[in-house]
Write a structure and sequence with these properties.
Strand content: 15-25%
Structural class: alpha/beta
Oligomer: single chain
Shape: globular
Number of helices: 12
Bound molecules: flavin-adenine dinucleotide
Radius of gyration: 21 Å
Length: about 400
């Protein structure tokens, strides 16, 4: 018998959960003051990263941090005013960087991420946009043998878990893709990876399908929960409360206070990321390509070339820093020297991130019918559909398809 499920947050994670639940016959309500898919999920690099089991912090990463912070074009920035605030989160991140911890994280993330394309396809098919789930592979590009060698552990972690990796060098790189800079020394191909060439169109298609299937979109913020006898009876909003048999917390970077209201304190931060969207590009890479040095992706999208990435630790409220997008623009021209383009659209979004690079997925401590599904950091598009399968099983009281113990809020 179908349940009434209230989902807080209509980003790609909430939408995927709603889609999976509706597919299984449940009645869903999506609660979000913003239109579906228009927050962090709007501007990502579009990669369906089956192989992204490698956490943000690796052994010795901290040694690179001062250099990154001093380099205005580096992949990490922390404004001085936020340095003290972020210090405890960085300390937790540092504590997850031993080789043993990194292997444990990779073991937890790999089963979640590797099913992304299989989990996305039926949802995209049902939403009428199967063309938005592609599996053409993607690549990491390096400008020096030193940078290539610096990522050896990441490659090893992937290969140990069965990820296929091909390495091209010298002229073979230009043969593979003549648009790429001749200065590249190594191109690491991951042919089993996927991408979505228009993440916002995917979100909107899911939302339209949900509404057509009877879902309600409640355009208000959730403000808390009415918990009675260890169950959420109603989601409180700034208007009428929403009655529900089960509740999913999928409010991205804003999930911490909602999780706290359900008994779980989590060190959720936002890793702010940026993109530039270049209209009418004269060249695009044949598959998404990430700069090994700059840690940004250049992804061919339906509406142009998107260059997305970088991490800025500055919280939820500071205005965007336009210099971060200048870095991406310069990076695009470095990767694709022949690039000429039309208008440039600049964007900043809030990745919801836990310091151990793992999301929070599982039952809330204070309410048996409340389920957390947030904190997917750099891989929220990838993990959304696999997370939805887990969440739907939990709503139905069935065992999740993979071990979710490593994602428990109680780990903090
Ligand atoms: C530059 C960049 C590049 C990226 N590239 C990739 C990539 O290539 N592949 C990949 O897999 N991931 C990528 N990501 C990460 C991915 O975009 C995120 O992990 C993902 O969008 C998070 O989705 P979400 O649904 O959890 O959060 P969001 O999309 O942020 O949605 C959360 C929603 O919750 C709502 N909300 C907040 N508070 C409340 C409340 N109180 N009540 C109701 N609603 C509320 C918000 O309005 C919002 O709509 C990238 C991110 C960035 C920034």
């Amino acid at each position: 018998m179908g349940q009434r499920v209230a989902i807080v947050g209509a980003g790609v994670v909430g939408l995927a959960c709603a889609a999976e639940l509706q597919l299984r016959g449940h009645a869903v309500a999506l609660i979000d003051p913003r239109p579906p898919g228009e927050y962090c999920s709007l501007g990502n690099a579009g990669c369906l990263s089956r192989a992204s089991c490698v956490p943000l912090g690796l052994p010795g990463s901290w040694r690179k941090v001062p250099g990154w912070l001093l380099d205005p074009s580096g992949p990490l920035s922390i404004p001085p005013r936020y340095a003290l605030r972020i210090a405890p989160w960085l300390w937790r991140l540092h504590r997850s960087t031993s080789l043993a911890a990194v292997r444990r994280i990779a073991d937890a993330l790999h089963p979640l991420l590797t099913t992304t394309i299989d989990a996305w396809r039926p949802l995209a098919q049902r939403a009428g946009v199967p063309e938005l789930i592609r599996q053409d592979g993607y690549a990491f590009a390096y400008e020096s043998a030193t940078a290539f060698a610096g990522d050896a552990l990441g490659r090893a972690l992937r290969e140990e878990r069965g990820v296929r990796i091909d390495v091209l060098q010298g002229p073979a790189i230009r043969e593979f893709d003549p648009a790429l800079a001749p200065s590249l020394t190594h191109l690491v191909l991951l042919p089993e990876q996927g991408h979505c060439p228009n993440p916002l169109r995917l979100s909107r298609a899911l939302a339209s399908m949900l509404v057509a299937g009877g879902a309600s979109l409640v355009a208000r913020p959730a403000t808390g929960f009415d918990v009675r006898g260890g169950r959420v009876a109603r989601v409180l909003t700034d208007g009428d409360p929403i009655e529900a048999d089960a509740v999913v917390v999928a409010a991205g970077a804003h999930s911490a206070p909602l999780a706290a209201a359900l008994g779980d304190r989590v060190p959720l931060e936002t890793e702010r990321g940026y993109h530039v969207m270049l209209a009418a590009p004269s060249v695009v890479p044949r598959i998404p390509v990430m700069s090994g040095e700059g840690k940004y992706f250049a992804t061919p999208m339906e509406e142009g070339l998107r260059v997305a990435g970088t991490v800025e630790l500055a919280g939820l409220h500071a205005p965007p820093d336009p210099s971060r997008t200048d870095v991406l623009l310069a990076g695009a021209k470095r990767l694709l020297p022949g690039l000429v383009h039309g208008t440039v659209e600049r964007w900043m979004g809030h990745r919801p991130s836990l310091p151990d690079s793992k999301p929070v997925i599982g039952h809330a401590r204070a309410a048996v019918n409340a389920i957390h599904a947030f904190g997917h950091g750099h891989v929220g598009l990838t993990a959304a559909a696999p997370t939805a399968r887990i969440v739907a099983n939990l709503v139905e009281g069935r065992a999740p398809p993979i071990d979710i113990a490593p994602f428990a809020a109680a780990r903090f």
